[in-house]
Design goal:
This protein is an alpha/beta fold and about 325 residues long. The chain has helices spanning about 15-20, 60-70, 85-90, 90-110, 145-165, 190-205, 225-240, 255-270, 290-295, 305-315; strands at about 5-10, 30-35, 50-55, 75, 120-125, 170-175, 175-180, 210-215, 220, 225, 245-250, 255, 275. It has a 7-stranded parallel β-sheet, with helices on both faces. A two-stranded parallel sheet has the order 7-10. A two-stranded parallel ribbon has the order 8-13. Helix 1 packs across helix 7, helix 2 (about 60-70) runs parallel beside helix 4 (about 90-110) and helix 8 packs across helix 10. InterPro entries: NAD(P)-bd_dom, NAD(P)-bd_dom_sf.
Length: about 325
């Protein structure tokens, strides 16, 4: 079946892996819409059925141009400022992208003549906040504590309300902590395992580098390999049962940051130099998922943390 699929944020870390997987179906055309703020063109495979359009999701003009140029069967909305701590530093700027950008896309999706088969929204475990009951299920208390988490939850509510109010087909994915090749380590706000990986490479090259731990290193996360996230996203796009539903996508495993550093040391046969700093404001201490709900759709994570890290190391 010939489908036109929009991936916003498709030049970024998770988006580019999704694009690669979707483009394997040769009859599909994938449109990547991205402003290249943290993503880059090199992330996108050069293939005839992948087209790139540069634009901002938070610009009504750019999104209008996108929907004048194409008519979509599926929309995966991943473009966002992905850093929790950047949202604490820049709440207004991140709100414009993470919240306004979602509403622009929803507005144009509902106005599109052809009915969208599914609008899948990339939300986050950050919506759960610090309430201590674990693991987080989709019915756990929602209490986001940062602008990032608040905008993700408000966006989720917009997304599901567009189903109730206007009949748009939607699904919401709450990713836990994603890692893997192409995660950009360039900023202090980057995902922790991309920074840790870069530090280990610098040390191996004989450069002076130290991994900065914020807090005591005992914070716990559910680190999920990017290919498992892609598996979950494609299921949410295809399965009718996901309509207007919300799902955690994670590994179902939990690890402290200190455990992960020890795993790197074993895998790479080296010592990682570390320094301890103040905990970041808005940082969540314990976050891990129940994945029972998405398993009912057929999801099965394929990577344990050591399998995922090994594949990551092989593909840097
Ligand atoms: P990323 O920064 O690599 O990807 C985001 C992409 O969006 C980039 O290519 C960037 O250039 C683009 N972008 C940013 N602002 C834009 C704008 N205004 N207009 C158009 N494009 C814009 O980050 P990622 O880790 O791949 O995150 C992808 C999505 O997944 C985000 O919505 C993020 O909030 C969500 N998420 C990520 C994680 C994680 O652990 N990485 C966890 C939960 C949720
Ligand atoms: C991450 C994602 C966010 C997602 C959320 C879901 C990124 C940049 N952030 O946020 O998009 O919604 O998971 O759970 O991908 N840390 C250090 N040293 C560093 C960097 C980080 O100690 O150099 C610590 C942080 O303080 C935090 C943990 O590592 O305790 C994880 O940090 P980070 O990768 O930024 O992820 P989250 O804030 O969990």
């Amino acid at each position: 079946m010939k489908n036109t699929i929009l991936v916003t944020g498709g030049a970024g870390f998770i988006g580019s892996h999704l694009v690669e997987a979707l483009a394997k179906e040769e009859s599909s055309t994938i449109i990547v819409f991205d402003n290249l703020s943290t993503g880059c063109l090199e992330n996108i495979p050069s293939q005839e059925n992948i087209l790139f359009m540069k634009g901002n999701v938070d610009s009504e003009v750019d999104v209008a141009h996108l929907f004048r140029s194409f008519s979509f069967d599926y929309i995966y909305h991943l473009a966002a400022v992905a850093s929790v701590s950047e949202s604490v530093q820049q709440p207004l700027a991140t709100h414009r992208v993470n919240m306004d950008g979602t509403i622009y896309l929803l507005e144009f999706a509902r106005a599109q003549e052809k009915k969208v088969r599914k609008f899948v929204f990339a939300s986050s475990a950050a919506v759960y906040g610090v309430e201590p009951t674990l693991p987080k299920t989709e019915n756990s208390l929602i209490d986001p504590i940062t602008p990032y988490g608040i905008d993700k939850y408000a966006s989720e509510k917009y997304v599901t309300s567009y189903s109730n109010l206007y009949g748009l087909n939607v699904a919401v994915a709450r990713f836990f902590n994603v890692y893997g090749p192409r995660q950009n380590p360039a900023s202090p706000y980057s995902g922790v395992l991309s920074i840790l990986t870069e530090v280990t490479q610098q040390v191996n090259r004989g450069e002076a580098a130290v991994f900065q731990i914020f807090g005591d290193g005992e914070q716990v996360r559910d680190f999920v390999f990017v290919e498992d996230i892609v598996q979950g996203l494609i299921l949410l796009g295809r399965k009718v049962e996901s309509q207007a539903n919300t799902y955690n996508i994670a590994s179902g495993e939990k690890h402290s940051l200190r455990d992960i550093i020890a795993t790197y040391e074993t895998l790479l046969d080296m010592m990682v130099p570390v320094a301890y700093n103040e905990k970041r404001p808005g940082d969540i201490k314990y976050s891990y998922a129940s994945i029972e709900k998405i398993k009912k759709l057929g999801y099965q994570p394929k990577f344990s943390i050591s399998q995922g890290l090994e594949k990551y190391m092989e593909n840097i």
